[in-house]
Specification:
mainly alpha; Cytochrome Bc1 Complex, Chain D, domain 2; disordered N terminus
Length: 104
Amino acid sequence: MKPLVLSAAAVFTFASGPLLAADAQELLKEKACLSCHTVDKKLVGPAYKEVAAKYKSRKDAEAYLVKKIKEGSTGVWGPIPMPPNGTVSDDDAKTLAKYILTVK
């Protein structure tokens, strides 16, 4: 019975990656994140690749990005502030943060 449980867990873990990316892509559009950010090039704000590279070694990276996504920030990536995103729920912010940290 244990191998079956482990197999199911492995399938869920590997399957959740594409699901996370698909959910995050929808949220990026829905919450207008792509107005200022792209995956690989600086637009108004930093590219998600840059964000992932900067914060991937932080133990609290996900929580840190959730806070930045929800509350905004000033002066971290230059003079243009990131506004707070009051329409982003905690769960959506976590989904976005997890996705951003996977971008390479």
